[in-house]
Each structure stands twice: as structure tokens, then as C-alpha cells.
Amino acid sequence: MELPSNARMASLGVAALYVASMVVNVVVNTGSVPASNVQLSSTHPVYLLPSGYAFSIWSIIYLLIGAVVVMQALPSNVNDPSAPGSQLCATLRPWLSLALITNGAWLYLFSYQLFWAAFIDIVLYLAALIVLVKSINIDIAAEIGEPLYKQRLLAHAAFASNAAWVSVATCLQFQINLMEEGYYPSADLSVGLIVLVGGLAATRAFAKADLVWALVAAWALAAIVHNQRPESSWGCLDDVCASCDAAKQRICTNERAVPLGWSLACPADSAGTCVVAKSTTVTVACEVWIGLVAASFVAGVIRGLLSKRRKAAGDDAEYARAE
Predict the structure, then answer these.
(1) Residues 224, 226, 230, 232: is their CA dihedral positive or negative?
(2) Residues of the chain whose pLDDT is less than 70?
(3) Where would I find the H helices in the chain?
(4) How far apart are CA 187 and CA 244, in angstroms?
């Protein structure tokens, strides 16, 4: 059990890490690094790359995490170590700190094209988020009205949304790394990774009625589909060569065949030329898993409500016996 003074210092430390993470985001996204995420994504057109609009989900994720940072610093969650809210926050703080640190580190590692270090970092980031979700361990439909339900739901929304997105980002990072090593990840490999992402989301949706994880996973999968439309600029030299001109990247200067290298492609007239074929297989896989995740959530809500009803009936029976 944390002493109040230790809890206060820990809560301030988490708040400081959150502020530092926001500063790192601003620095990275204002061009103060060798290459931006957008530029690196454009030159690595892998099948698991979501369309650009999907990354706006980060504003919601950071807002939710900010709300949790405020919650864990409230006097009611600091001054009384025996209070359930204080115990919940004490459990979350170490893993939230690790998540914030690895988040900020990944932004720099990726921007400086230290891709394998970035991959190790993002795996640690995802692991911290999964521990946070499991620590909260809320069954959204079955536990309505339980003690600390609102606080746990807020924390869950923050970390489940983050984990769902980072599960996709981890697979995306792996594909980018393969490109850097000279192997273009096939549509077949991409489908396998989609099964992992979708299967994890469907499991969460059924087992915990996890609407947050389900929605974010579906959002990411839909954005992958968006990039595979015939009219999409994904895999086209216009975007690739513009990104090569804007930022120095290894993949832009090597002489491998496209799409593993761009030095021989970009000096030529690239207007309207697309060099990576769109994949109907990837599109169908994403759409199937969006449907499966939705169905799993509906089944999970039914499971949770039935569980809540059984629990209520059991409590009533126990009360009647006590009478």
C-alpha cells in the first residue's frame, strides 16, 4: 500500500510524463525530426498501412489518457491509500508511466529510422497497455452499477483504445521493417496479421463486451480498406517521390527494385504511376473481420447482461435464505 506522500509524488510523476509525451508529439509533428511519420509511411506502402485520416484517433486517445492522468492525481485517489480508487490508481501508475515513456521513445526511434529498436519499443508499449487493460479487468455489460464502474470505464476506454490501435501499429511496424530488410510483405502475410488483430479484437468484444477495443480495431481495419480502393494514392509514385524529396530516407537512395527502393523510380516522370497493386484479398479480410468483431460484440453484450441477471438472481436467492 502506498503512503500518501509516495502516492502524491507518483501521481505528479505520471502527470509530468504525460506533459513530456505531449511535448514530444508536438516536436515530432512540427518537422523537428529527420523524417515524419507521414513521409516514412508514404515510402513504405505496405498492405497494413491505414489511410491518413485514421490517425486522427490519436487525439481521442490522448484526451482519454489525459483524463485518466487527472483522475489519478485527484486528492481522493492520493490521500487515502485504503480507498478503492487509490488502490486502482496505484496499480495503474507504473504501467501508465512505462506506456508514456515507450510512446515518446518510439516517436523518435521511428523518425530517426532506427526501425528494429522502434519495433522492440512498440512491443513493450503494447505489453504495458495490455497489462493496464487486464489490471482494470472490466466486463462492460456485466458490471454496470458496480463500485468504481465509472472510474474503471474511463481508464479502460483510454487504455483499450490505445492498445487496439497499437496492436495494428505493431504489425505495421513489422511490415515496414521487412521492407527495410529487402522483403516486401505479401498480401498473404498481411492477411495473417489481420487475423491476429481481428481475432484479438473479437476475443475482447465477446469476453468483456469491449466496445472501445472493437470500435478502434474496426476503425483501423476500415482505414486499411480505404487505402486499397482503386482510386487511392497508396503505392503510387506521386506520394512516394514527394516524400523522398522532402526527407532523407535510406529506402529512397538504395537501388533495389521498387517498392524496396526508389532511387531508380523517382527521377523519372512519376505522375499517376502506381507500382504496388491493390489487394482485394486484404480488403475482403478486413471487411470479414470488421463483421466478426461486430458480431462478437453483440454476443458479448448478451453474455454480459445474462451474467449480470444470473448474479442478481443469485444475490436475491441468498438474501431470501438469510431472511
Answers:
(1) negative
(2) 1-5, 268-271, 312-323
(3) 4-29, 37-42, 57-73, 84-111, 115-136, 149-180, 187-208, 211-227, 237-246, 250-253, 280-322
(4) 25
The SS3 assignment for 236 reads strand
Name the grid cell of 105: 521513445
What span, in angstroms and rounded, lies between the C-alpha atoms of 39 and 29?
11
Q: Which three cell numbers stand for residue 124?
A: 513493450
State yes or no: cis peptide before 84, omega within 30 of 0: no
Q: What is the spatial distance between Cα 114 and Cα 119, in angstroms, rounded to a whole number?
A: 9
**By three-state DSSP, how is residue 190 classified?**
helix
**Distance separating alpha carbons of residues 75 and 92, to the nearest angstrom:** 16
Question: Which of 41, 40, 52 lies closest to 248 in space, CA to CA?
Answer: 40
* pLDDT tens per residue across span 90-108: 999 999 999 999 999 999 9
pLDDT 10s digits, 226-276: 999 999 999 999 999 999 999 999 999 998 999 999 998 887 666 678 999
